[in-house]
Every structure is written in structure tokens, then in C-alpha cells.
Here is the input.
Amino acid sequence: MAPRPSAWKMSCAPCPLPSGSGYVWVAGEQRVVRAIRKYVRHELKLPPERYQLVGYWTQEGEAWEAKWEALPDAVKHAIEAGWASDWDREDLRDEYDATLEKFGL
Here is the structure.
């Protein structure tokens, strides 16, 4: 069964955040973690020093790898150039995540 990046939001997003600075730490399936990152960064507007989000595994990893390998070389080179650049890492992560989503990864 494919991951449901929106399912976490139904169960977690309604939970009120405690007052104070706090910290968000999440590890899980990479597509779900991407969805959580969007929420934490763009909806909650937390600064990067207040969260660590780690996508450490991929549902249907072999299919994901096949899609990655099929990416046009220009896309892969653009991704590599971005990581090698001095762009803001959070803005770069936004672009990277958007690229993955665009190509169904």
C-alpha cells in the first residue's frame, strides 16, 4: 500500500502546540515526512532551528529508484548543482521536494 502523506495531518495537525519555543522531530517514510515538512515550515512557519525532519525510508523503494534513474540528466544535474550551491538550505529543500513531487518521487 502506498503511503498517504495526508493521513498524518488528520491525526496530528489538530493537536495544539504547547506554548514556548519547543522542537519538532520526525523520522519516517520520505513522502510523509515531506508533507510534514511543508506543514511545519510553511503553515506553522517554524524556523529551521526548531525542527528536524528525516525521511529515512521509501515505500516501494525499488519503484522509486527506477523513477529516479529515469529522470532526465538535466534534472539530476540541476539537483546536484543546487546542493553544491550556496543557496539557503531550506529554500533549496523546498525546490528539491517540489522537483521530486513533480516527477512522482
